[in-house]
Amino acid sequence: MNNVGLLYVGAVLLVNGLMLLGRVPPRSAGALNLFVGALQCLTPTVLIVQAGGDADAILAASGLYLFGFTYLYVGVANLAGLEPEGVGWFSLFVAGCAVVYAGLSFWRNGDPVFGVIWLAWALLWTLFFLVLGLGRQELTRFTGWAVVLLSQPTCTVPAFLAMTGAYRSNTGTGLLAAAVAAALIGLAALLASRSRDTSPATARAAATA
Q: Of 70, 96, 136, 207, which is least surrounded by CB within 10 A?
C-alpha cells in the first residue's frame, strides 16, 4: 500500500515543481496536494493499525506522515492564501528526519537505493526550507527544476518497480541511483542558470513541497 502512495507522490511533486517554475498556479496545485496529503496520512495509519505492534512495520510506516502532513499543509496554505514560512520551517524538520531514514535504509535495512532516495528527499526539503522559510528567492528556479527532475526517479519509478516485483537494491544499484541523482541535480542547476529569475512575489506565493 505504501508503494501506491509513493506513486502519487511522484505526481504531486511534479506539479509542485512546475508551480515553483511558474507553470502551475498555486491554487490550482492546492487540490492535488490535499488529495495526496490525505492519502499519505491514511496509508500509514492503516499500516500501523495492521502492524500488530511490530516495531519494524511501524517504523517503516512512520516516515509517510512527513509527506502527508507536508502536502496537506501546502494544500491548505495555497488555497487559503497563507504565507509560506510555516511550510518552509516544517520542511527543515522533514529534511532532518529524511537524513535519519536514509541512515536506517543504508545500515539497518540493507536498502542502499532507498537510502539514496531519502537523501534526495532531504535535499529537496532543505531547498523548500531555504526558499519558503528563509526567503532565498534566488534558489527558486533551481528548486523547481530539482523537484521536477527528481520527482519521477525517486517516487514513480521505484513505486512501479516495487509493485511489479522488479525492485532491486544492492551496492551496484545504489551507486547507480546516486549517480543518476547527482546528474539530475547538476542538470537542474544548469537549467536554472539558463532561466530567467522568478519574481519574489511569485516565489513567495508558490508554497510547495
A: 96
